[in-house]
Amino acid sequence: MATGKLEYVRELERGNRLPNFNWIVVRIDGWHFHRFSEVHQFDKPNDARALNLMNSCAVSMLEKFPDIIFAYGDSDEYSFIWSEKTNFCERQESQILSQSVSFFTSVYVMKWGEFFPTQELTYPPAFDGRVICYPRVKLVRDYLKWRQADCHVNNQFNTCFWTLVKSGKKKSEAQKYLAGTQTAEKNQLLREFGIDYGALPAMFRKGSCVFRDKVEEGVKLDGGRKPGEETCRRVRVDYCDIIGKEFWDQHSEILVED
Ligand code: ATP
Ligand code: ATP
Ligand code: MG
Ligand code: MG
């Protein structure tokens, strides 16, 4: 049978081009990682191997997709900010989202053994993803502030929760004990257990930022590529404060509004 007659079904495909001039945020999140982290014996509250694996996947994302300008992650989630100028897949939402999620997931599986050499991957992990468009730099920055503030709140809670559980309390008791407590009370509780919250690794407290190094004038770049060529800049991971102004003042080239 000739295919010509059947091609009308393609007309039912829905286009879903994301609006021009908007930064595109793709946030991915581990599916049921509460269980995944237990089955794979993650250290609680923070397994550094798992966080470094997530960070390594995010670095691969920036290397693979030059139009991702910044990424921020903590726990089992990562947000990727695509340039407002990208025309990747003609800005089709389903393609940007599905390529992001599937590439990240494949890299996670491929690199698992590098970060968990003694822990077998016992079932295939999955990530979900969503897309949000922001037309202003202020909104993108507020989005990132929101994620970092969320990381702080969750991490402080989880650090207290697991400190109590490791001291012998039942999970339900620890939950009850912490209900309604403020930041100062949580810090006090940790001090009673000899933990200085501010001295815990920045990767746990602040989450991770992934971005490209600035190109300094006159510096010879890897492979002899010229400055300005996106893909030749080294992608780095840092645990920066992105709530305050300082980081954005120092890296003013990342988010620019014309
Ligand atoms: P959902 O499918 O709705 O996202 P979830 O079980 O993944 O459900 P989240 O709110 O995404 O729930 O939380 C992720 C959970 O994964 C955390 O609560 C924590 O238990 C676990 N987790 C993720 N990363 C780590 C890590 N690096 N170290 C320890 N635990 C982790
Ligand atoms: P796009 O990213 O746009 O999908 P593509 O290179 O994947 O580009 P497709 O139209 O999806 O292009 O075609 C898939 C191509 O992959 C085929 O043209 C063929 O070259 C190759 N391919 C896929 N499966 C097989 C297979 N089982 N044996 C040999 N070649 C294959
Ligand atoms: Mg999750
Ligand atoms: Mg999560």
UniProtKB/TrEMBL annotation:
Report the Pfam families cross-referenced here: Thg1, Thg1C
> Cofactor note from UniProt?
Binds 2 magnesium ions per subunit.
Protein residues bound to Mg(2+) 2: D29, D76
InterPro entries tied to this protein: Thg1_C_dom (IPR025845), tRNAHis_GuaTrfase_cat (IPR024956), tRNAHis_GuaTrfase_Thg1 (IPR007537), tRNAHis_GuaTrfase_Thg1_sf (IPR038469)
The entry marks the following residues as binding Mg(2+) 1, namely D29, G30, D76
Co-factor(s): Mg(2+)
| GO MF entry, a single one | magnesium ion binding
| E.C. number(s) listed in UniProt | 2.7.7.79
According to the UniProt record, what class of enzyme is this? transferase
Where does the UniProt annotation locate this protein?
Nucleus
Q: Which UniProt keywords apply?
A: GTP-binding, Magnesium, Metal-binding, Nucleotide-binding, Nucleotidyltransferase, Nucleus, Transferase, tRNA processing
tRNAHis guanylyltransferase catalytic domain segment(s) = 7-135
Residues recorded as binding GTP, renumbered to this chain, are: D29, G30, W31, H32, F33, H34, S75, D76
Name the domain of life this protein comes from: Eukaryota
Identify the residues that the record assigns to the Thg1 C-terminal domain, covering every copy.
139-242
Checking Gene3D superfamilies in the record gives: 3.30.70.3000
Which cellular component terms (GO) are annotated to the entry?
nucleoplasm
GO terms under biological process: tRNA modification
Reactions that this protein is recorded to catalyse: a 5'-end ribonucleotide-tRNA(His) + GTP + ATP + H2O = a 5'-end phospho-guanosine-ribonucleotide-tRNA(His) + AMP + 2 diphosphate + H(+)
Task: Tell me the protein family, please.
Answer: Belongs to the tRNA(His) guanylyltransferase family.
Q: What does this protein do?
A: Adds a GMP to the 5'-end of tRNA(His) after transcription and RNase P cleavage.
Q: What is this protein called?
A: tRNA(His) guanylyltransferase
Question: What taxonomic ancestry is recorded?
Answer: Eukaryota, Viridiplantae, Streptophyta, Embryophyta, Tracheophyta
